[in-house]
Amino acid sequence: MALMITDDCINCDVCEPECPNGAISQGEEIYVIDPDLCTECVGHFDEPQCQQVCPVDCIPLDPDRVESREQLMAKYELLVSDK
């Protein structure tokens, strides 16, 4: 699954720099996660870094973007091959 940021976001700015894929950006009102870039940090870290630093716990799994670990790894490999 990709991750998502809920309306509980307080725009504290700590998640964006932690994302190794550049999937997090400032949206119109709160930060947003681009599901095409989110690998839940698979390929980089053991756990999603944005979830680790979020002070309000507003970054759950996106139930509309179910992906297996293998799919996330394939997305990671595609993203790093484009660099």
Automatic annotation (TrEMBL):
<dbReference type="InterPro" id="IPR017900">
    <property type="entry name" value="4Fe4S_Fe_S_CS"/>
</dbReference>
<dbReference type="InterPro" id="IPR050157">
    <property type="entry name" value="PSI_iron-sulfur_center"/>
</dbReference>
<keyword id="KW-0408">Iron</keyword>
<dbReference type="Pfam" id="PF12838">
    <property type="entry name" value="Fer4_7"/>
</dbReference>
<keyword id="KW-0479">Metal-binding</keyword>
<keyword id="KW-0004">4Fe-4S</keyword>
<protein>
    <submittedName>
        <fullName>YfhL family 4Fe-4S dicluster ferredoxin</fullName>
    </submittedName>
</protein>
<dbReference type="InterPro" id="IPR017896">
    <property type="entry name" value="4Fe4S_Fe-S-bd"/>
</dbReference>
<keyword id="KW-0411">Iron-sulfur</keyword>
<feature type="domain" description="4Fe-4S ferredoxin-type">
    <location>
        <begin position="31"/>
        <end position="64"/>
    </location>
</feature>
<feature type="domain" description="4Fe-4S ferredoxin-type">
    <location>
        <begin position="1"/>
        <end position="29"/>
    </location>
</feature>
<dbReference type="InterPro" id="IPR047927">
    <property type="entry name" value="YfhL-like"/>
</dbReference>
